[in-house]
Amino acid sequence: MSTLTLSNKSARRLFLDRHALSETPQGVAQGAELLSLIARLGFVQLDSINTVARAHDLILFSRRPRYRPKALKRLYEKDRALFEHWTHDAAVIPMDYYSWWQLRRERDAAKLRNQWRDWRRDGFEAQFQPVLDQIREEGPLCSSDVGAGEKRGSGGWWDWHPSKTALEYLWRSGALCVVGRDGFRKRYDLTERVIDDALCQPRQEPEHTAATIDWCCSGALDRLGFATPTELAAFWDHITIAEAKDWCAGELAAGRLQPVEIECVGGALRPCFARPDIASDPALTLEPTPRLRVLSPFDPALRDRKRAERLFGFDYRIEIFVPEAKRRYGYYVFPILEGDRLVGRVDMKAFRDRDTLHVRALWPEAKVRWGKGRVAAFEAELARIVRLADVSKLSFEDGWLRAPQ
């Protein structure tokens, strides 16, 4: 099969379409419509930092500006349309996908038990049954509700007390489910009381491993448009790169994949795989909306920083853990998307005690002019974001519009 070359512009269009960023951000943002958006993305990463809004809320808001956090909370905690588990990080995932996490739970069960012994979480295995018995008797519990009398650490994850470690292990391996959060503290319940029996039925080896690999790779490709085996394996973070490579080889031989070369910024070509009908995909002729919008640093389109740099020429590193004096931009800086370009990044924070969203600095990308029209579009986006941030006023630091770095 001959190799198709996609121009950088075509690749951007396809990629943005798959991430629901091509169309004008609008539409219903609750119930079945919100669930459909999450399914389109595959999952939504959870994050506790609330500089302006939590990552999961901004991810959904940037695509549906009518979105409000209570809509996600209802889907997750009341409707049970979502479950929480890990992809590359903690995420909420459509409940229909629960059975496909069996392989991840099995692999986590083996891996974490060994790792956590090595990290000296002494005694956590002995707490499995007491924790399960307590939850069975008392109902959903947080980590602070279990392990009375156990030594508490200083707050880092490596200082979890044994019963908290048991809670996390039992969740990751499948005996427990997270059923919601108090603030950002997880509440755990018995899986048998939460998940429909049909979704919990174990699949048999080796068929379920092969089926899961196929589901993971196919679903990842559908949501990326084009990908390498490494990118397919990383999307859900269930399977190995070797498993993704074998899947690609089999699909290619069967005619269900074709090799493509993706033009990166600067002209380099990157070999990937795509569906055989990629050349006629409607997204290739779809002009992305010119609407300017602020994205979460953890947006699905930017999660792979190296891919964002190859496709968009956007070099982004989050600087949360960088000492303030060494930061290039700021603690929590938001990328700005306009059309098919990332045109800047903004350091801003919601001061809820002052009822104000404050913009400290905005840095345009190189060769992007921020004239009156673009500044007005940015201010219009901020006027939408203040509602999500639960404030009502805007303020700008003197000299907030900086020179590109």
How would you explain this protein's 3D organization?
The chain has 405 residues and is of the alpha+beta class. It has 13 helices and 13 strands. Strands 9-10-11-12-13 form a five-stranded mixed beta sheet, with helices on one face. The protein has a three-stranded mixed beta sheet with strand order 1-7-8. It is globular. It starts with a strand and ends in a 9-residue tail after the last strand. The model has no long low-confidence stretch (mean pLDDT 93).
Unreliable parts: none
Order of helices and strands: EHHEHHEEHHHEEHHHHEEEHEEEHE
Report the average pLDDT across residues.
Answer: 93
N/C terminus separation? 44 Å
Record the strand order, biggest sheet: 9-10-11-12-13
**Percentage of residues in strands:** 15-25%
Main traits of this protein?
405 residues; five-stranded mixed sheet; alpha+beta
Element layout with pairings:
Layout: E1 4-6, H1 8-18, H2 31-41, E2 44-45, H3 55-61, H4 69-78, E3 82-86, E4 90-94, H5 102-118, H6 128-138, H7 162-173, E5 176-182, E6 185-190, H8 197-200, H9 207-224, H10 229-236, H11 241-253, E7 258-263, E8 269-274, E9 292-294, H12 305-312, E10 333-338, E11 341-351, E12 356-364, H13 372-388, E13 393-396
Parallel strand pairs: 1-7, 12-13
Antiparallel strand pairs: 2-4, 3-4, 5-6, 7-8, 9-10, 10-11, 11-12
In short:
The chain has helices spanning 8-18, 31-41, 55-61, 69-78, 102-118, 128-138, 162-173, 197-200, 207-224, 229-236, 241-253, 305-312, 372-388; strands spanning 4-6, 44-45, 82-86, 90-94, 176-182, 185-190, 258-263, 269-274, 292-294, 333-338, 341-351, 356-364, 393-396. The protein has 405 residues and is an alpha+beta fold. The longest helix has 18 residues, at 207-224.
